[in-house]
Amino acid sequence: MRYWIPELVLGVLHPNPPIHQADKFGGLPWGLPQNKWPGDGEGPYVFFAQFTHHLERANLGREGRVAFLFLGGTDTDETVVFVDSEELSAGPTCLPRPKSTTLTEAWVTEWEDDDDGLSDSILPYFMSEKAYYADEFSQRRETVSLSDTLPGGTRLGSVPDWVQSPYDAPPVPPFVFIGQFSGDFDFDGPAPSAEQTGCPIEQEGSSIWSMFFPRVMKPHRRSSHPGAPRKIRVHKDGTYFCDDNCIGDGLAYLFVNPDPVTPVGKFFIQVT
Q1: CA-to-CA distance for 180 and 168, rounded, in angstroms?
Q2: Strand 232-234 to strand 201-204: parallel, antiparallel, or no bridges (unpaired)?
Q3: Which backbone phi and psi does 207 adopt, to 5 degrees?
């Protein structure tokens, strides 16, 4: 089955941020009408990501439709807001309240397409608690190392790499699995400097991590650029990551019923 891995660039480092809606994580939503920002009595929900309809990669049911994902909602589910092309606003949406929480912003510059070699026939086993634990599928798991075959981390497509099991999954069909998301972002090197990002840089050494700070700390950087990272960690090979996006050691999953008129989203988190 096909899947897509995002190539990412930090929002504070993006040389030319898009003027139209694009797939992204954290920071501010782009194109969301202000009156559609969800929340409750405790305040606005935290914006997590947005994805534009793509028939193969992210089927939302209608050309130009965008799904906005927020952390917050019910006891079991987070929140998905769908906005059709004619309702989309221009540019970023302002925070509903000053000092509202924002997550590290990362723009998707490209989706890298690949195939995990799994047959479509295996899909039903990942969408039902009963089928997932059936003897037939248990035997298949013994002969095929699915943990090695399934791509982990953040991706769209293929089947869910369940942290727990499919007990939270909605009925498939009418829902389709869109993707899964981890709590950190991985970036290709070279890593930026503390001066470029305005945040501490933690560098992996031979046995310890060394911390580098900007010469002048910028305590209000996140207010001037919502979504600026709080800290960046750099591996020995030059790749780096940020890990402040509230998923912890689990994964978040997105399913969508791509009805052309009334789409429905189910966005939830499983932790270890």
Answers
A1: 13
A2: parallel
A3: -140, -10
Q: Evaluate the omega torsion of the peptide bond into residue 173 and state whether it is cis, within 30 degrees of 0.
A: yes
Residue 84, CB half-sphere, CA atoms under 13 Å: how many? 9
Eight-state DSSP code of residue 193: P
d(CA 11, CA 218): 16
Q: Could you read off the pLDDT of 135-157 as tens digits, one per residue?
A: 767 666 555 555 567 778 899 99
Taking only the tens place, the pLDDT of each residue in 33-50 is 999 999 998 899 999 999
Please tell me the distance from the alpha carbon of residue 98 to that of residue 152, in angstroms, as a whole number.
Answer: 36
Q: Tell me, what amino acid is at 122?
A: I
Residue 230, token pair as written in the block: 């709080």
d(C-alpha 62, C-alpha 85), whole Å? 9
Radius of gyration of the chain (CA): 19
Residue partners of 58: CB distance under 8 A and separation at least 6: 51, 52, 67, 156, 178, 179, 256
Q: Provide the 10 A C-beta neighbour count for residue 250.
A: 16
Instruction: Return the closest-CA partner of residue 37 out of 65, 63, 72, 10.
Output: 72
Ranges 57-71, 102-116, 151-165, most confident: 57-71
State the sign of the Cα–Cα–Cα–Cα dihedral 115, 116, 122, 124. negative
**Token reading at 228:** 């600026």
Residue 92 has what DSSP assignment?
Answer: B
Q: What are the residues whose beta carbons fall under 8 Å from the beta carbon of 72, sequence distance 6 or more?
A: 38, 39, 40, 45, 46, 78, 79
